[in-house]
Amino acid sequence: MSLIQTSTFLRRILVLDAVSCAGMGLLLVTFGGGLSGVLNLPVALLQQASMVLLPFALVLAFLSTRARLPRAAVWAVIVGNAIWAIDSIVLLFTGWVQPSLLGYLFVAGQAAFVALMVELEYIGLRKSAAVTPLHA
Fold this sequence. Notes:
single chain; about 140 residues; mainly alpha; 4 helices; 3 strands; elongated; membrane; transmembrane helix; transmembrane
């Protein structure tokens, strides 16, 4: 297993990602019904998104506290975020939902933010030094 010494930059980005996931998850849980009408997005979609975001926020918060991490764990976060961003944009063009203009902006805006997290987490991974094994 390949370990990294997590850079301060990576830990801070993981915290930012955790806080943003928790905030969005809480927003969707608390105001999903009202947002559904304004955004013209199904309440079930918003609720399901919150059920993904809240546990993911806990995982990110935990990872952000670790001085060492498996490189694969960071890649899993990066890939998961990339899939979220891509799926968000695909959702807008499939016809599965017919959001209002504000709904389009909401989905596209959060997808852009998540794509930014992907880039910053990748930069953080590159800034994190590989841990050399004790016996080689």
